[in-house]
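Hi there,

I know you've been waiting on this one. I reran it after we fixed the sequence typo, so this is the corrected version. Both the input and the resulting structure follow.
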Amino acid sequence: MRRISLVLLLLPVLAACSDLFDGVPAPSNLVYVLEPSGLPEAPAGLLLLWDGVPTNDLLAYRVYSRRTTASEFGLRGETTSPSFHDAGLPHLEYYVVAVNLENAESSPSNTVVVDERLRLDSPDWIESVSLDRAVMLYWSDNPFIDEPTGFRQYRVYSAFYDLDADLCGDFALEGTTVSPEFFVGELTNGSPRCFGVSAESVEGWESVWSDLRADTPRPDVHNEVMYAFEADQSVSGFRFELGTALGVVSSGLRSDMDFRVTRDGSGNFYFQPIRVGTSVVPYGTGPIEDLTEIDVAPAAGYARADLLILPGYGYVFQMDDGDGFYRYGAIRATHVGADLIIFDWSYQTDPGNPELVRGPEGAPGTIVKP
């Protein structure tokens, strides 16, 4: 529960807002909105808004503020509009007066207190799904669930991620959303990214960020068709990456194919690794609903033996090109027929990166922010 549920705190000051002082009506309904900066303790600024006074001899509005309750109010600025932008770290309290053409000030407006206790909690967790040139982020909705009247939106940040050094670059605002999910598009496949999310209150207070999340977009193709070697040799071989081409279907006789599809006398289909350095392991022990369920490539269990292909099951291939980095590809068989199979596949173009889709909490791809 929010201990303070209003956007502003109304404190009595000198006189009621509706009173006239030296014939000048006082401004009313003063509120503030913070400008988040990405640093919860240091907003970029503050915007004050209030109802203008109904008078024809208005000269200006004067904004007064103080940093602490122990200090005196001082003139912060002057404006002719019913708003005022205060850049940088805001003061603790503000009020506004109207000034007429004779330089007489009205009584003060209500005072607003910029109270950091209105800051929301950060999302409890964040996860992601790697897509083709995109990443889908989703996270815990506890900031909204806990404080529905105090919640405004989520702020999503991203940066380049150095996988080898395990370091994120300079973060920039990716966008905002009121939902606990965000689609990041127009990304480069094989280029790792870092992501973080904060919750913004109605006053503009920004929460501490969620844990940081690393993800790497990768090519993703659905409904690829291949024939068994025994049915049509010319389209029974597959290579995840060949030069600049991805997902090459060619002859199963070629030694540079990652694998070919074979069929035994009983009609069973198998993945048969061909290229030196290519091996395969089943993903899990049962069917998977979608290719996106294949997360980080398994660390062990790869073999060059023929592997039975079953509809709905997932498989991960590991390719060793001799340069010190493994490449990883994933396949989900969607259909096994009499002569052919249909499957979805994905491939991580970033050498040495085992992340194919998404990593569960605590697995590679999750970075805990210090």
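Quick highlight: Residues 3-19, 357-370 have pLDDT under 50 and may be disordered.

Best,
R. S.
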